[in-house]
Amino acid sequence: MLLIEVDGKTLLAEHGVTVPAGRLVTDATIGDLPGDGPWMVKAQVPVGGRGKAGGVVRCASRTDVAAAVARLLGARLKGHQVNGCLVEQVANGEERYLALMVDAASYGLRVIYSTAGGVDIEQSGAAQGLPCAPHPGAVAEALAELIADEPEPLRDHIATVGRKLADMMIARELALAEINPLFVCSAGCIAGDAKLVVDLGAVERQSRIAALIEARPDTYADAVRKLREGFDYVEMDPDGEIGLLTTGAGLSMMLIDELAARGMKPLNFCDIRTGQMRGSPARVMRVLEWITSRPSLRAVLVNIFAGITDLAEFGALLATGMEQTPTLRVPVVARLVGRGAADARRILAERQPEMFVTEDLEEAMRRIETIVRVSS
Amino acid sequence: MTAAMLNILSHETPVIVQGITGRMGRTHAALMRAYGTNIVGGTSTRTDIPDAAGVPVFASCRDAVLATGAAASVAMAPPMETLAAVEEALAAGIQLIVTVAEGIPLHDAMRIGRAVRRAGATWIGGSTPGVAIPGEIKLGFLPDVCLRPGPFAIMSKSGTLSYEVGFRLAHEHLGQSIWVGVGGDSVKGVRFADLLPVFFADPRTHAIILVGEVGGSEEEECADALKRLGMRKPLYALIAGREAKEGVSMGHAGALVMGDAGTLASKTHRLTAAGARVFASIEALTQACMHDFSVLRT
Lengths: 376, 298
Known about the structure:
The structure holds 2 protein chains of 2 kinds. By secondary structure, chain A is of the alpha+beta class.
């Protein structure tokens, strides 16, 4: 999961990398600004390409800052709501690109460096970098090779940032630590941006990362849900019409793609993991509670492919979960296939007679489409 | 990562289950045995339990391998304990290890990968339902209802999406020569590209089905390998996540899109340019497979 910039910079600073003076602004009263202008106003959403999407604004005056903040707060940028803006002093220097990432194919890290920092670096293909072992010494060696043409004292400053980045990457078990741009000048380096990808699998033993996530339950809503509930639920579109109560990450993603391709608006992604429900309707109720909290909801699609799970048990839990969710007032279509499907169908016919149950996913999607068309 | 072990797997391959006395271990050891897998034993810290799922329980992989000659292991360990489980298996001489845990810490996965590579062994996972050669052997928990001997080699990041594909084709009497769940993590064992040579060399395989997801660069690597090796067998691909939300892992740790990296467009473009056929829906993929291979129904 990608941290928002302000949290990435907090971690960078804790590991000794200099960041511009800045303040997170979360409402229209912008308060004291850091230092004199000019300032950068940056929407705090965990996505790449914020600049191109209009989420980063350079402001010369306090009035401009107020206007930029007012425009950005509450807006949606690439699927994420902007809950805060980082207002920073503009940093100066030549722009460089420096990143460390986990190199999955080599079971090591990759050090990427380019003298052409800036917004087009990812597309330019200029920065291929060097793979190395996941140790600070190996990172330092690889980086030394990449920055060999930089003049002193810049080379020395960049090498120092590289060492700190490597220590942080390993200590905090990160997947990516990218600084773009890294401002360099004879006095030292300043991280103009911070793109840090944390590993949710390691959060249990990374208390600092856990604290950063827990401190912003709105910004990291999807991650917080995963850590607290033990399963995956990602809100795709708060104005979505179709709620998904599904198992399997890949299949749930594909369903979202297919529903969207048919012109429908999925509300959420969900991997409820039926195998971990252990006879309790709690997860069904949680998902129904989240889905039904959105007034745009028109229908719920349940899709369970049961390889191991007994659908008779799941069917009963689904019925119980529905009975105990008074906010559920839209039609539910269930596609249940696999072990115990016939029993599940019988149980649901008894307890939820209005529910449409099928073994055929295509039929279930057509049914959902009909419901949405009729109710619109 | 070497995929060397995969084409010599059979119903005779001796297999152990690490963590066999746990709920998952017991259940799946029994299901694998029922499928015909030669489960010869298991390991557990519970030395007071002499046997589970009808096979002997050993205190360590070393004891299990010495007593049974096991060559493969299915590690039913929690994510934080998977690294230790793999290290133990490798030290005992296990050559193929399947790790099913979801959420193995990324940096642990790097250590696992390096250790497996040093040992010259084969690793499948994490976040995988496992691997199967239908009619011969199943390591992990691919649902029996999807498994059927036939012409397609399936490789997939996602369990459920591959079940859906396999199930629909099996229903039409089109089965699989081999099925490898490479898993949904970014740092993993065998990757798509590693499997192309295995599938090309396998006489039972007539065509390849790749079930991918946004995030990472495995599909792109596979496209490069396809170009390098030449498309000796047709490859059909289905990739989930066109609508994925940026910056957030979509259930699988590896399914993370940022900027233009790891997007569906990038993967589709590279695979198509390499000669693969990429489909936008499950139905479109399965229909094409049925159309092109109806003569191979079994």
